Each structure stands twice: as structure tokens, then as C-alpha cells.
Amino acid sequence: MASALDIVRDEHRDILRILHMLEDLAEDETVLARGIQSGLIASIVQYLWIFPYAIHHPKEEKGLFPALTAKDGGTLVATIAELIGDHAKGYRLLREIENAMLASGAQGGITRLRTAIRDYVDHKRRHIEREEREILPAVERILDVENHTTVKKTFADLKIDKNILALFESLFPHRQKEK
After folding, report:
1. 20 to 30 A Cα–Cα from 144, which one of 8, 43, 95, 159?
2. Residue in 58, 70, 64, 86 with CA at minimum distance from that of residue 135
């Protein structure tokens, strides 16, 4: 059975896979233009709106982070506040990708889109790396089994649309075996 920490790590890996795909598409302007025309870029952006912001971040912000700050003596409050701010910045950067997609047919539009994608991917990678480096080890050190159980229950209690959840679980079936 996967722990709360395992769930967060797995979700980070899933997000990183999608970021890698988006980054690869943005490497070549012709490939990126085809990705726009085919709807692939729009689908990736839709995934990035739904999975991190509707499923993953609420687990951190409503489950993991509060449990950690309740037990760490206040040492991680500033770090967690910055990470929550990063979530908001990612939202703005993702909006810029959407705006750049809409303008991709204009002069310099593909270049703007490539820049927006790079900015978003770099931001999300740095954010995930920081969580993996600073928060997850603290979770291992500070939270006991009971805390992990409570956090995992909070994850399960989050009001995530069951259809959306089923869609993402179908994308990553290997995670079903871990529940």
C-alpha cells in the first residue's frame, strides 16, 4: 500500500513525464506548430491545468503541508509559503502558454510559445526538485505513521471529480496497483 509520501512522489514523476514531452515538442518550431494544429499541445495544457492544480496541489496544500507545519516547530513555514506561491506562479505561467498558443499564428507567435513553454517547464521542475529536496525528506523525518495515515485520508477525502480522477488513473495504470 502506497504511503502519502509515495503518492506525492509518484505524482511528481507523472507531472515530470508530461513536462518532458512538452519540452520535447517545443524544441523544434515545425513540430510545435504541428502539435498546435493537431490539438496535442492543447491536450497537454489541459492536463497541466487539471492534474497539478485540481488533484496534486490540493493534496499538498490541504494534507501534506498542514500536517508538516503542525509538527515541525515552525521551521518550514516560510518554505511552504514559497512553495504555495510557486503553485500560483505556475498558474500564471500556464496561462501565458495558453495566450501564446492563441497568438501562435501571428508574427513571432511560435517563438513566444516556445519561451512560455520553457519558462513553465523550468519553473515546475525547480519547484518539484525543491519539494523533493526540502519537503519530502522533512516528511520522512517528522511525520509518524499516524500522521501519514491522516494525510492519506485527507488525500482520499478531497472532493476531486470522480470522472477526472478515473481519467488520470487510466493514464497511469501502474499506480492503481500501489493503492
Report:
1. 159
2. 64
The span from the CA of 75 to the CA of 23, in Å, is 35
Burial of 128 (0-12, 13-18, 19+ CB in 10 A): buried
What cell numbers appear for 60 in the block?
Answer: 499538498
Q: How far apart are CA 46 and CA 53, in angstroms?
A: 11
104 close to 81: Cβ distance less than 8 angstroms: no
Q: pTM (2 decimals)?
A: 0.87
- Rounded Cα distance between 97 and 120, Å, is 8
- What confidence category does residue 178 fall into, taking pLDDT thresholds of 50, 70 and 90? very low
Domain ranges of the chain: 4-178
Distance of alpha carbon 175 from alpha carbon 179, whole angstroms: 7
Residue pair 22/44 in contact (Cβ under 8 Å)? The answer is yes
pLDDT in tens, 86-117: 999 999 999 999 999 999 989 999 999 999 99
Residue range 27-67, pLDDT digits in tens: 999 999 999 999 999 999 999 998 898 889 999 999 999 99
Query: Of 120, 8, 95, which Cα lies nearest the Cα of 58?
Result: 8
Let me know if domain 4-178 sits in CATH 1.10.132.30: no
Q: For helices 29-38 and 109-130, what crossing angle results, to 10°?
A: 90
